[in-house]
Each structure stands twice: as C-alpha cells, then as structure tokens.
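Page 42, continued from yesterday. The earlier attempt failed because a stray header line got pasted into the input along with the sequence. Redoing it now with the clean sequence only.
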Amino acid sequence: QVQLVESGGGLVQAGGSLRLSCAASGRTLKNYIMGWFRRAPGKEREFVATIKWSGAGTAYADSVKGRFTISRDNAENTVYLQMNSLKPEDTAVYYCAASNYLGPGYAISANRYDYWGQGTQVTVSS
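This time it went through. Structure tokens are written below.
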C-alpha cells in the first residue's frame, strides 16, 4: 500500500504560481509512475501531468503545457507540481496518484493509477 498526501494548494491571483507537493509513505515512490489529476467543480476528473520512474520522461495535458512542471525526488519520496502563470480555469482539486503501469507510452488515463491522495484545493482568482 502507498499512502499519498498532497499539500501546497491555496488561493492565488491569476498569473501567480503555486507548488504542490505529494508525499508518499508505505512504499518507496521510485517503483511507481506518478501523476497529477484535477477535478474542477461540475467537471470530470482530468489528467494534468505524469512522470516516469527515473524522472526522465514527462507528459502534460495541452491545457497546462509550458506552464506546469512535474518533478520527483525519489530520495525524499515526494512528487511536485510547479504551476506558473495560473489561470482561473486552473481552479480545481488537485490529486496525486501512483501507478504500477508497465505498458508503453505514458500513463494518461486515471484507470492506470492504483493509489490516490485526498486532494488539495487550488483556487485562482481573476
């Protein structure tokens, strides 16, 4: 079992930045692909970013590409999401997830993920 706890959410003005953290316990994160997803009010959960085991491979949703950066520190058992140039449409609950996916490509679908955190609220005001 992997327990994931997100932190770093909050209220920020449009154009601002936030850095989300996802701390893991129970097992080392180095064995898992990690991802960030978000759910805005009244919308479906959507993929944001994912990072492979070594951190060498990353993928992003088109809506955040160039503004968000996912990274990981396997020694600290932590994954990060640096969010810059935030927009009101980025307002959502952000979830960290861990995946045992061994297939080709990137784990974009939420169905590929086995463990989830409780989420952290990000609110971007205009």
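Notes: The chain has a mean pLDDT of 95.
Reminder to self: strip header lines before submitting.
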